[in-house]
Every structure is written in structure tokens, then in C-alpha cells.
Write the C-alpha cells for this entry.
Amino acid sequence: MLAQNAYAQYNKNKIMTASPAELTLMLYDGCIKFMNVASMAIDEGDVEKAHNNIRKAERIIEEFRATLDMKYPVAQDFERVYKYVARRLVEANMGKDKEILEECITHMRSMRDTWREVMRIVGHSEERTAGEA
């Protein structure tokens, strides 16, 4: 019980001290995790667990869409991907379709990996700039 409380406190602190970029990365990871759990639940025949986890992934996608700043052209590209994945998640949930979930997971992994690479590049350029000053 004590270890579980310590782990929960660690996770809470991790979230509270994360940068916006790190929080976005955590959301991508969470979305992928929920879709994976839903996929396993479909295998197990647990319809309720599959539904609940697909809905969690859908809510993360909704949050991504709500926070896009459309003044940047790249936001429109993100919006198209998020809109497509959101529609496919509804379809996956209605039919408890693992193939659609796997497609959505692939899209979100690609988005997450791209985000991670942007974080790495930006972090690297900030370090270089600070070192040059």
C-alpha cells in the first residue's frame, strides 16, 4: 500500500512539474496506452473495458483538437489527423474492431514520435544557444 501511494505521489509530481511539451508527450503516451488496453480487452471479450478505454483515448484526441492554435498552418495538418483518428475510434468502438484500433495506434505513435523529435531538436538548439552566449 505504501509503495502504491509513493508511486501515485511520484506521478502527480511528475505531471505538476512537467513542461507543456512534456505534458503533450504524456498525453500521446496515455492515448496509445488506452488504445492498447482496449485492444487487449477486445481479445478478452471485455466489451465494457474496451469501450471505457476507447472513450479515454477519444477524450485525449478531443483535448488535442481543442488546444490547436489554427494561426499556424501545421495546426491544420494536425487537425486533419486528429479528426480522422477520432472518427476511426468511434468506428472501432461501435464494432469493437481491433484492426481499426491498430490503425489508430499507428497514427498516434507517428504523431508522438514526431513530437518527441521536435522536443529533442528544440531542446538541443536551446542548449547550443545557451552555450554560445
